[in-house]
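Handout for the seminar on molecular recognition.
Each group receives one record of this type.
Step one: identify the two inputs.
Step two: read the structure output and locate the region that could contact heme C.
Step three: write two sentences on what you found, then compare them with the reference statements printed after the record.
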Amino acid sequence: MKSRTLAVALAAGIFALAAAAIGIAQGAPAAKAGAPAAAGKAAPQPLVILDFKPTLSDLMTMLIQPRHIKLWAASQQRNWTLAAFELNEMRAAFDKIAATIPKYPQPGTSVDLGPTFISLMGPKIQAVNGAIGAQNPMQFATAFNDLTVTCNSCHEALNHPYLVIKVPDTTGYPNQDFRPVPGAAPLK
Ligand code: HEC
């Protein structure tokens, strides 16, 4: 009962904070864009959430590269629950990228990213998923290496041969613990 009260109080506090943060965010652009607005009567400005068109490279750096590292880091700790989570996040991130940039321009043509991701990465993701299901470190290492080679095949095919992805040698995330949490099962 006590801890429930605490949880409710915490949740209320978080919402209050979030509301305060939104208030500040809404105030900022209005103040900045205030110049030509009719003197005195500042009309409410529409809130621009994101005036930023990420490139494929931005999205790869934001959404794919960290999951590739974390997937590996989880496997090093035999944390198959986390590995499954990260793999699924990576798969979903490829979908999000294809939805954001359906056609990636190439000299004189363009590449349909959705089908390309599915045909190239689909089987590799399946193989990693199989290794995670089997909780088999050797099988994982092979499948993960194969997946990584495929990242580079696409970089080469799409004229970025200098973008070379490798199997990590450190996690690079000093603030995340990749060890298994006893009893932690994914929500179904
Ligand atoms: C459909 C082909 C394709 C696949 C598959 C692919 N990439 Fe990419 N990736 C690209 C292209 C093309 C670029 C450069 C995009 C640009 O110039 O905006 C890129 C850029 C990147 C970058 C940005 C590099 C930088 O320094 O800014 C990273 C990181 C990256 N990819 C990681 C990966 C990883 C990891 C995988 C595999 C898990 C992967 N990519 C799979 C096509 C692909």
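Reference statements: The first strand starts at residue 103 and ends at 106. Confidence is low (pLDDT under 50) at residues 13-38.
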